[in-house]
Amino acid sequence: MTETIHITIENQHGEINQLEIPDGINLSLMEVLKASEYDILATCGGMALCATCHIQVLEGMDALEPLSDAELDMLDTLPDANDQSRLACQIRLNPSLDGLKIRVFGNN
């Protein structure tokens, strides 16, 4: 039986949507957001080199892996980053993320 990961996403306009992602797809949150047509540039392709997939974690931060040095370095370059900021490219989807709530900033 495949579990489903439910993620709540607030976009830059304040609209809230639910994503249901099947467990085991082996993608990053950035890849799922791009495939779901969210305004995520992800210029570097998920290498933690550009910070254009910056998100804010509203609920579920404790379920995420700790920040890597590369991710922390990129977040330090963002004027609007805070303690809830993460790079979506560095978040691998797994069942422990069920119930995650995030805000995407968009790049327009």
TrEMBL record:
Domain of life: Bacteria
Domain 2Fe-2S ferredoxin-type: 3-108
SUPFAM superfamilies documented for this protein: 2Fe-2S ferredoxin-like (SSF54292)
InterPro entries found in the cross-reference section: 2Fe-2S_ferredoxin-like_sf (IPR036010), 2Fe-2S_ferredoxin-type (IPR001041), Adrenodoxin-like (IPR001055), Beta-grasp_dom_sf (IPR012675)
Example of a GO biological process term: P450-containing electron transport chain
Keyword annotations from UniProtKB, A to Z: 2Fe-2S, Iron, Iron-sulfur, Metal-binding
Necessary cofactors: [2Fe-2S] cluster
Signal peptide (from-to): none
GO molecular function terms noted in the UniProt entry: 2 iron, 2 sulfur cluster binding; electron transfer activity; metal ion binding
Family: Belongs to the adrenodoxin/putidaredoxin family.
Name of the protein in its database record: Ferredoxin
Organism whose genome encodes this protein: Parapedobacter pyrenivorans
